[in-house]
């Protein structure tokens, strides 16, 4: 039986990058200098942003940006602490120091900064100058999730799933799917289909989640719906509908759907008119999309065709010899 597909590679926000906060209002520059000297954290932070803005214009002001972010952070300005961490992490104005970077990111994250929590998660996910720790990455993404970052809900759920912490994964998939993250809906559907993560097996619920994901443009989920229609799981069996959805998913580069549709055309399954050439084309498309099963099916089909042609030539040779006699 074909496996239902989890999305295990798409982490929506691009969790491999780091973020520094840098919105700035130039009109407040003079006032900010004065207020920062008087100890106002927001003004020190704004002044740091000004120097950061200048550094983006090739003016060497990372040092001043660092000083002002540090002043603001010392007064518990969360975003300033994130920016100090970023500058430490990248060796801007100061020596690169991952230990200090983590310390400041953590201070910011503990004050509920989504940016800082995601930066910490990304450090541990990538193993960037620290030991790779997917569970710790999941925990920081989960904290961002609790603070309202829906894509982090999906990211944390994916990592919890990879670490076999299925119940935590279910919690964050639910949050993310409820906010229309369609990748999360697909994965939550697989949990319901298989009764994973403390969930009771519920094929109808799985179908509805796949349907929501598919309607949102996730063609992996469309492939999963086609599988359910094909086998009558959670919905009345409807092979015609399954073939239609496999075709649509394949047209949108879902490689598993191309392989399955190609198999129908090769074998004439479900009374579908066989079409060997189209079957080969679909297997090739699947293979070109990186699907090893598609590559294997294509090679098997080529071998079968070559064997059939070889046998045909052999039969023709025998017939010719018999005719001469």
- Main sheet overview: none
Helix content: 55-70%
Q: What would CATH call the homologous superfamily of the largest domain?
A: Tetratricopeptide repeat domain
pLDDT average, as an integer? 87
- Supply the number of helical segments: 16
Computed over alpha carbons, the radius of gyration is 28 Å
**How many domains in all?**
3
What portion of the residues fall into strands of 2 or more residues? under 5%
Can you tell me the CATH topology of the largest domain?
A: Serine Threonine Protein Phosphatase 5, Tetratricopeptide repeat
Say what oligomer this is. Answer: single chain
EC number: 3.5.2.6
Protein name: beta-lactamase
Catalytic activity: a beta-lactam + H2O = a substituted beta-amino acid
Enzyme class: hydrolase
What would you note in describing this structure?
Keywords: Antibiotic resistance, Disulfide bond, Hydrolase, Repeat, TPR repeat. This is beta-lactamase. Belongs to the hcp beta-lactamase family. It is an enzyme of class 3 (hydrolase). It comes from Campylobacter blaseri. By secondary structure, this protein is an all-alpha fold. It folds into 3 domains: 11-131, Serine Threonine Protein Phosphatase 5, Tetratricopeptide repeat, CATH 1.25.40.10; 133-217, Serine Threonine Protein Phosphatase 5, Tetratricopeptide repeat (Alpha Horseshoe), CATH 1.25.40; 222-320, Tetratricopeptide repeat domain (Serine Threonine Protein Phosphatase 5, Tetratricopeptide repeat, Alpha Horseshoe). The protein contains 16 helices and no strands. Helix 6 runs antiparallel to helix 7. The longest helix is centred in the C-terminal third of the chain and has 33 residues, at 292-324. It starts with 28 loop residues before the first helix and ends with a helix.
């Amino acid at each position: 039986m074909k496996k239902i597909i989890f999305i295990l590679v798409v982490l929506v926000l691009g969790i491999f990058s780091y973020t520094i906060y840098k919105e700035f209002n130039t009109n407040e520059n003079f006032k900010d200098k004065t207020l920062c000297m008087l100890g106002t954290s927001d003004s020190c932070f704004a002044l740091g942003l000004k120097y950061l803005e200048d550094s983006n214009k090739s003016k060497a002001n990372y040092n001043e940006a660092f000083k002002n972010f540090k002043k603001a952070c010392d007064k518990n300005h969360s975003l300033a602490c994130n920016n100090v961490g970023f500058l430490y992490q990248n060796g801007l104005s100061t020596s690169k120091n991952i230990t200090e970077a983590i310390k400041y990111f953590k201070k910011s994250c503990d004050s509920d900064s989504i940016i800082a929590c995601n930066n910490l998660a990304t450090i541990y996910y990538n193993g960037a100058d620290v030991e790779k720790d997917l569970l710790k990455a999941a925990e920081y993404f989960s904290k961002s999730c609790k603070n309202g970052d829906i894509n982090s809900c999906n990211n944390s759920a994916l990592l919890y799933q990879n670490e076999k912490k299925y119940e935590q994964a279910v919690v964050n998939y639910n949050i993310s799917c409820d906010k229309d993250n369609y990748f999360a809906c697909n994965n939550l559907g697989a949990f319901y289909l298989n009764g994973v993560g403390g969930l009771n097996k519920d094929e109808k619920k799985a179908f509805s989640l796949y349907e929501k994901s598919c309607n949102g443009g996730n063609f992996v989920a469309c492939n999963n719906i086609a599988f359910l229609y094909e086998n009558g799981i959670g919905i009345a069996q409807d092979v015609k509908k399954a073939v239609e959805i496999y075709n649509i998913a394949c047209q949108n580069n879902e490689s598993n759907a191309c392989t399955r549709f190609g198999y129908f055309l090769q074998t004439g399954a479900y009374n579908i008119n066989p079409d060997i050439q189209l079957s080969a084309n679909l297997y090739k498309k699947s293979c070109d999309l990186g699907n090893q099963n598609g590559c294997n099916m294509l090679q098997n089909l080529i071998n079968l065709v070559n064997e059939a042609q070889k046998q045909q030539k052999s039969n023709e040779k025998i017939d010719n010899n018999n005719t001469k006699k």
